[in-house]
Specification:
The protein is α/β, with parallel strands linked by helices and 341 residues long. The chain is built from 13 helices and ten strands. Helix 3 (103-117) packs across helix 4 (136-145), helix 5 packs antiparallel against helix 6 and helix 6 packs antiparallel against helix 7. It is globular, with a radius of gyration of 23 Å.
């Protein structure tokens, strides 16, 4: 019995080693530059000489290093697509500062990545595009609008409304509604956010500061004004003569460009786009985004809405403790087909 068990263990180890060595791709550490900023990246290269289509993994608002999106990166590479996954500005081994950057700054980073991929002899320079996560969906629209080198865009949960609208949706759904805040108080809190963003990024007047300070003094003692957003912004807010200049404020790019309207970009889009939403998304208002895309009716945009899928286009399976989450059937195959065709 002991000998048989040892043989079985040996077979398992062999299979693990064999399968591990039979990967259809290899990972290449590399760097690319945008002006004075150097970015650290990994390229997931399919086996063979190519040329292959290529995709750049564009970050969401929180996943900033190249160790995210590896599930996508490996799948794309195993299916014949060169994949560039990089550390965002100021994260991992990349230079720069994300928190003083604008959407336009980040769009120029994306296009620098495109230009870099087009120098590689195993990349089909005519078939380079983006896979964008969440708030990256806003920025790839800008990148595409200033470049003729983008073949395709995949936008996962990319909002069709302004960043401010997504903040309001998140605050209401994930904070205020759970605490049963009265509607009149709820609206007062929501009215405060555009004032905060405007003060931090546009208008440093004493009058606006006095208005914000008065409302903060009213709401801060209440039990329903304690969430991630409020604690974060409270640390940034000071009277005008104590505030750093607008370009030095440490603020997420979506806060700096809180009023960015993606609709005109969707209307003018000539690059083919696959836009994926999940009906169970709790971070962006899908019910407000879908009518925008439907109303525009741009033939270059293919939109799919997945039932029961969340912001990550993952489906919860009950019970979670046994089954966890999964992607919708055919989702990854659809992405590969879209990139290649």
């Amino acid at each position: 019995m002991r000998v048989k068990m040892l043989r079985l263990i040996g077979i398992v180890i062999f299979l693990i080693t064999f399968l591990g060595c039979s990967s259809k791709h290899k990972i290449i550490g590399t760097e690319f530059k945008n002006g004075d900023i150097t970015f650290s990246a990994n390229i997931y290269k399919p086996k063979g000489n190519g040329p292959f289509p290529a995709v750049i993994m564009v970050h969401g608002s929180k996943n900033h290093t190249k160790d995210y999106y590896t599930e996508y990166s490996k799948y794309f590479a195993d299916n014949g697509i060169v994949t560039l996954n990089y550390d965002n500005r100021g994260h991992g081994k990349s230079e720069g500062n994300l928190w003083t950057s604008t959407f336009s700054d980040l769009a120029s980073d994306f296009n620098a990545a495109v230009a870099y991929l087009q120098t590689l002899d195993y990349v089909d320079r005519d078939k380079v595009g983006f896979w964008a996560d969440s708030h990256g969906g806003w920025i790839v629209l800008i990148a595409d609008s200033i470049s003729d080198n983008i073949d395709f865009i995949i936008s996962k949960s990319g909002p069709a409304v302004t960043p401010l609208k997504t903040v309001e949706f998140d605050v209401v759904g994930n904070y205020l509604s759970k605490q049963n805040v009265p509607d009149n108080e709820k609206q007062k809190i929501l009215n405060l956010y555009p004032k905060i963003f405007r003060y931090l990024t546009r208008n440093r007047s004493e009058n606006l500061w006095a208005d914000i300070k008065s409302e903060l003094d009213y709401f801060e003692p209440t039990p329903y004004f304690k969430n991630d957003f409020d604690e974060y912004y409270k640390e940034l807010l000071q009277q005008p003569n104590k505030m750093p200049t607008v370009d030095k404020v440490q603020l997420a790019p979506s806060g700096r460009d809180y009023d960015f309207d993606p609709r005109p970009y969707f209307e003018k889009l000539t690059t083919r786009m696959f836009l994926a939403y999940g009906k169970a998304d709790r971070l962006i208002p899908v019910k407000d985004c879908v009518p925008v895309i439907n109303d525009i009716d741009n033939p270059n945009i293919e939109m799919v809405i997945y039932d029961n899928a969340d912001h990550g286009i993952r489906i919860q399976q009950k019970p979670d403790i046994l089954f966890g989450t999964k992607f919708p059937d055919g989702y990854f195959e659809k992405l590969v087909d879209f990139i290649k065709n």
